[in-house]
Write a structure and sequence with these properties.
The protein has helices at 3-18, 67-80, 85-100, 112-117, 130-144; strands spanning 31-37, 42-50, 56-64, 150-151. The chain is α+β, with helices and mostly antiparallel strands. It has a single domain, classed as Sufe protein. Chain: A, CATH 3.90.1010.10. Strands 3-2-1-4 form a four-stranded mixed β-sheet, with helices on one face. Strand 2 and strand 3 (56-64) form a beta hairpin. Helix 2 packs parallel to helix 5 (130-144) and helix 3 runs antiparallel to helix 5 (130-144). The chain starts with a helix and ends with a strand. Bound molecules: zinc ion. The site of zinc ion (ZN) has 8 residues, from helix 2.
């Protein structure tokens, strides 16, 4: 990884890890899901409020975990708020591909969101951290799909 990118990566992860955004529950959530990454001990719950047009009106998380899992969850809530479920699924595909190298890259034009998500790609350097970075996204997907429990093993 280039030094510049590594610095950005560390800066963003540290910032979100220390000051997570949307770290709360949503009282009138329409669904939620619990996610866990037993390899690291990361545990979180993602709350989702969808409106009738399938737009994510509110999204938040609570839980505990390592800096990367918390930072990734924090970024997730910022990025998918106001998006439709379809758009959120595109972002999920993008993140999953970026972090794991598996699956197909999203064909959606994610615009500036793709740049912001780029910092998460740093985890590819640290395979043991990939599940930390993807946990919140798997949990989001579980919440979208009706609140099943998610595990980063899936
Ligand atoms: Zn972790």
């Amino acid at each position: 990884m280039m030094d510049e990118l590594r610095e950005l990566y560390q800066e963003v992860i540290l910032d979100h890890g220390k000051n997570p955004r949307n770290f709360r529950d949503v009282e009138d959530a329409t669904s939620h899901a619990h996610g866990s990454n037993p390899l690291c001990g990361d545990q979180l719950v993602v709350y989702l409020k969808l409106n009738l047009d399938e737009v994510i009106e509110d999204v938040s998380f609570v839980g505990k975990g390592c800096a990367i899992s918390v930072a990734s969850a924090s970024m997730m809530t910022e990025l998918v708020r106001g998006k439709t479920v379809d758009e959120a699924n595109d972002i999920f595909d993008h993140v999953h591909h970026m972090c794991t190298g598996e699956g197909e890259p999203s064909t959606a034009n994610l615009g500036p969101d793709a740049d912001r998500l780029g910092v998460l790609s740093g985890v590819r350097q640290f395979p043991v951290r990939v599940k930390c970075a993807t946990l919140a996204w798997h949990t989001l997907k579980a919440a979208i799909e009706g609140g099943e429990d998610a595990t980063s093993e899936a």
